[in-house]
Amino acid sequence: DAGVTQSPTHLIKTRGQQVTLRCSPISGHKSVSWYQQVLGQGPQFIFQYYEKEERGRGNFPDRFSARQFPNYSSELNVNALLLGDSALYLCASSTGRYSNQPQHFGDGTRLSIL
Amino acid sequence: DQQVKQNSPSLSVQEGRISILNCDYTNSMFDYFLWYKKYPAEGPTFLISISSIKDKNEDGRFTVFLNKSAKHLSLHIVPSQPGDSAVYFCAARRSGGSNYKLTFGKGTLLTVNP
Fold first, then answer.
1. How many A-B residue pairs are in contact by the CB < 8 A criterion?
2. What distance lies between CA B50 and its chain's CA centroid?
3. Residues of A in contact with B101 (CB under 8 A)
4. Which of A8, A56, A98, B82 is 20 to 30 A from A76 (CA-CA)?
5. Residue B70 C-alpha from the chain's centroid
6. What pLDDT is attached to residue B84?
7. Which residues of B fall within a CB distance of 8 Å from A68?
8. DSSP E strand stretches across A5-86
9. Which pLDDT score, from 0 to 100, does residue A96 have?
């Protein structure tokens, strides 16, 4: 079975631009979460979506937004990019919102801001 | 405030010996704990988890121990293999309304020497 897939794998943008990152969860998984990982830190929670609704949001500015589609895939959008947005963006999926099942991660999108 | 702490940035062990990775947490509402392994250029891979109703969980060479009174958990790898060399992240999830979010430590780089 395919794992969590993310695209693109790498992206270079300049300050002020906008970016859209994509994620396809594991088949049968209805919950998708997004995390940001900067060098030397653990992943930081950005959003969770379940059944196409936002169920949680981390401590990130409104420049960050996301959505989930009927097929449970998801997009993360970041507007007005700043140098500090350079990071690895990880998508994780799980079976459900409250289940005690682990989240499974994709390989991430490496975003570099020049 | 770092709610999940991995105080050892790195650990080096000999092949065949035991690797012990430690993790401390401060939030008593955390009730589900996970360990992830991360190779460079890949996303975190789920290793093993433990619920707060248990104090030990085993899966092959990997065992996680939870000491709730000390708010401490550890991951034991026996025997260690060179392929285990990676960054290991401890993560925790709290019960209640925000249980969708994983809170990660900063990670410990494990190097297993042949």
1. 57
2. 10
3. 33, 45, 48, 56, 58
4. A98
5. 16
6. 97
7. none
8. 5-7, 10-13, 19-24, 31-37, 44-50, 53-57, 64-68, 74-78
9. 75
Which of B34, B100, B101 is closest, CB to CB, to A102? B34
Q: Which residues of B touch A107 (CB under 8 A)?
A: 41-43
Task: Calculate the CA A105 to chain-centre distance.
Answer: 10
Contact call for residues B35 and B89 (beta carbons, < 8 A)? yes
Extract the tokens encoding B29.
């509402």
The answer to whether B47 touches B107, Cβ cutoff 8 Å, is no
Give CA separation, B10 vs A51, A98, B39, B89, B106, in Å.
Answer: 39, 33, 14, 12, 11
pLDDT digit string (tens) for chain B, length 114 residues: 789 999 999 999 999 999 999 999 999 989 999 999 999 989 999 999 999 999 999 999 999 999 999 999 999 999 999 999 999 999 999 876 656 789 999 999 999 999
